[in-house]
Write a structure and sequence with these properties.
Blueprint lengths: L2 H6 L1 H55 L1 H19 L1
């Protein structure tokens, strides 16, 4: 397409540029963003599994020794209350 044709039909040139930019953005999303998001999701899922495991362990300890758990909670509450005065 010559310069005169481009001047006569600027919307076609603009459409081609937009199409190229869209293809570049799609390629960047596919090559860079999606793998990074996927990796972060895997790490978050792993962390949630670890947190669930710790919560289950604490819950089991509380069920096994409820009296000690109440004493520990009371002591922690007392210390926090004294500290915040």
């Amino acid at each position: 397409m010559s310069d005169a044709d481009k001047a006569a039909h600027p919307s076609e040139d603009t459409r081609e540029q937009i199409a190229r930019l869209r293809a570049q953005v799609d390629a960047l999303m596919r090559d860079r963003v999606e793998p990074a998001v996927s990796h972060m999701a895997e790490r978050a899922e792993h962390a949630m599994g670890a947190v669930r495991g710790q919560a289950d362990t604490v819950s089991a300890q509380i069920r096994a020794q409820p009296f000690i758990s109440v004493l520990v909670a009371a002591a922690v509450g007392f210390v926090i209350g004294r500290t915040l005065r």
